[in-house]
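Format notes (please read before filing issues)

Several people have asked whether sequences and structure tokens are stored in separate files. They are not. Every record keeps both together, in the order shown below: the sequence lines, then the token lines. Line labels are part of the format and must not be stripped during preprocessing.
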Amino acid sequence: MSLPAVFGTTVPTIPNPVPYLSPDPGLLKHWGRLLADLRGFNVGIAWQGNPNHKWDRHRSVPVTAFAPLARVPGVRLVALQQGPALKQVDVLGGRFAVTRLPPRDPSARQWTFPDTAAVIRSLDLVVTVDTSVAHLAGALGVPTWVGLSTVVDWRWLLDREDCPWYPTVRLFRQAVQGEWAPVFDRIARELTDRLRVWPAGRGVPVELDPGDLLDRIAALTAAESRTREPMAAARVRAELAALIAARDHGLATTPESDRLFRELLATHQAGCDADDGVRRCDQAKDYGPAFVEAALAAYRANGRRGIIRGRLNDLLGVRGPRPAGESPSAAGPVAP
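Then the structure lines:
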């Protein structure tokens, strides 16, 4: 059974509030302090997936592909790679620098996946090929740029640079199969341009359509009062301030868009309440009617968000052409 089919999910209504994963507070404190001591704009990189995957030859690259990023002034590359591929850093021979963070446990040979999550959350940007790092960073709500082959997993869809699953992810696609150099040259140029106006320590701004921008502001506003961990709360406030500044600088809102934003904020708050209900039931191992009602409320809130987001894009204009098959009316009407 396909739940998206049952619920009538379409691309505009894919539930995508991020972050929906949060690192362990203790790990975040450990890695956050370590990365704060590093000078520069910290960019985490991952270049290889599971070599036994049947499509790995299409998605993985050598670490040397990231050389153009290392030449961007002020950038420090931080290896997120684990396993045998990390040995590639040892044989770079001084061609460029990639920082290897030591295992938290000296007796361990590599990080745990929770460590990786905490490191990612402490970075300014993640640049990766199609690996689990891309999905983890997207779920954590971290600005992430993904290099993609012409042969891609279905989740990345086709002919678009954004990602409906993760609003903070941007896709850089090959124009010709197997040619990675133009992809990483473009990433380096984009990063150079961004850093001229976006200082280290603030992260890379994420290009969003108006509806996505306002949706993200509403999500962070709803989450701000619910975020207890001090470092996470500080990041929420910093990102919220940056997005509000982007809205105020470049978005001409209207009375109708203001009304829709208020509805969007109320929808996010209702969704947060529903998520809290799901968590309470899960902690109590109560999967009866209360759990079902909370889960349905969360799903309805996500669907409503998608409708409002689409309406805002119709009102204020989208950043680029809509994907094929997604008409301006695909989001449906929004009741006053």
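For reference, the curators noted about this record: The chain has a mean pLDDT of 83. The chain has two domains: 2-197, 210-316.
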